[in-house]
């Protein structure tokens, strides 16, 4: 036996208290991981953005459209190797509360600019030939129980009326972080109907997607595009895809900031829980530490016993929290699919959560250890009984 | 003439309670020869336990010198004192002070963890010590599974397992029934007579004091009167 064999025995001494502390730390670590993942999900669009893709939208605002005629001018610009466009459809399927993004794509060539979308060739072929064909992300397919070949009717808000589609393919993501919730269909489908019903809205797209040959040229190409149209009736605002996504995150900046503060507070709360346990533990054992000192054990041994016990409890809580985190994040991710199409667990969450648990274990032990080491043997022995 | 194991020279010690200074020992001097069994008696607050703590190196005098086993304790730092205690002093407390999460064997083994003995050597020492106090069949018992007398005997085994120079006992029978107290006192007497252990014991119990060679009375921080010699 070594003196540090006392650590696991002391941990098991007040089993209920230890268990409650471990569970408290575990829940807090899990909450910490959940909050971090929500924050990461908010930024998923930014972090997953391709560095060689630019987004150009109407300078007046995202709800304003751009004329499709701008495409040829953009294609001719130096550094540009591909251009496509999209429009936000904003329709609903049965219940308007069941949100999922619907985007009118230019056509099959749009998929070439999105290599992270994996689609089989048969689906692309159908997409190219059938006016109302749709290719749907695997998450949305699963969510509504759709199958390839199903007919789906969407009710348009921006483009009024009922719109009938036939699902011709499913796209999956190249990584877990890829957004696989989108409902993609041909822009020509809505444009043709607009020509008949609302001619003033025909020939309009929501944004340009511009692929460039070198990410380093992003700023110069963006400037060139905006300069090209700055004196037209439809000036553009061009930026990298990451910056474009960031502008959406910025709209929810206060919420994200609040979540970050809460995640820090969660660590603070577990620190208080663990510190309270360790303070109670050390106070109860002051006489035992005095006895150990009397027998010749020095301050380093007492420090090791208290820090070791605190670390063991914190690490057990941290490990349990990490184990709980994975299934909980899956469930939460599935339920938040409409808001966060990609809900990837940031790999850094695990070392951060483990680090937070270790930090809590160390910090919680500092004061009790300092107190126990400093206390004179005589005063410690007076507390016997 | 046997050499002195304990020499307390003109020691004073005060404590502060709130802002009031309480003088506990006033220029006290005491010598304990090797192999002697000394009982310290006196009323509560007379300074018995303080004197014992100074001899054991767990407290420091305000002035004067404490020399035990040839070492001037005043000159040692906390770390050196801890090492010195581990080597030279065995403690027996009134309330036994065993660690409740350790078995009798493990409690006795504790002081040996500070030595360089191998696991096998430690086991032999612990078994010998527990056999000496008559508890070889209680090795795996936890303190809560032992009677008060048995707990105190485990504490005595813990105190002697390193073969210390001096044993200090603070009211070792104070929490025991008559029968258990008698057994513990017999054990201490045996350690003194058979193994020549120097013992300094604080007690209120005259029957306990009768087991000692010499009884010294303290009152108001001073030795009161001459030593009472029970036996030589």
Profile the largest sheet of chain B. Answer: 7 strands, mixed
The ordered H/E elements of chain A are HHHEEHEEHEHEHEEEHEEHEHHHHHH
General form of chain B: globular
What does the radius of gyration of chain A come to?
30 Å
Characterise the protein shown here.
The complex is a heterodimer of chains A (385) and B (232). With 385 residues, chain A is α+β, with helices and mostly antiparallel strands. Chain A is built from 15 helices and 12 strands. In chain A, a hairpin with a 4-residue loop joins strand 7 and strand 8. In chain A, helix 2 crosses helix 13, helix 2 packs antiparallel against helix 14 and helix 11 runs parallel beside helix 14. The longest helix of chain A is centred in the last third of the chain and has 37 residues. The mean pLDDT of chain A is 89. In chain B, the strands form 2 sheets. In chain B, strands 3, 6, 7, 8, 9, 10 and 11 form a 7-stranded mixed beta sheet that branches. A 4-stranded antiparallel beta sheet of chain B has the order 2-1-4-5, covered by helices on one side. In chain B, a hairpin with a 2-residue loop joins strand 4 and strand 5. Chains A and B meet through helix 1, helix 12 and helix 15 of A and helix 2 of B.
Short description:
Chain A is α+β, with helices and mostly antiparallel strands and 385 residues long. Helix content of chain A is 54%, strand content 17%. Chain B has helices spanning 48-56, 78-88, 104-109, 119-132, 148-160, 178-195, 206-209, and strands at residues 4-17, 20-33, 37-41, 63-68, 71-72, 89-92, 166-170, 198-202, 214-219, 222-223, 228-229.
Which descriptors would you attach to this protein?
heterodimer, A: 385 residues, alpha+beta, ten-stranded mixed β-sheet, two-stranded antiparallel ribbon, elongated, B: 232 residues, alpha/beta, seven-stranded mixed β-sheet, four-stranded antiparallel β-sheet, 7 helices, 11 strands, globular
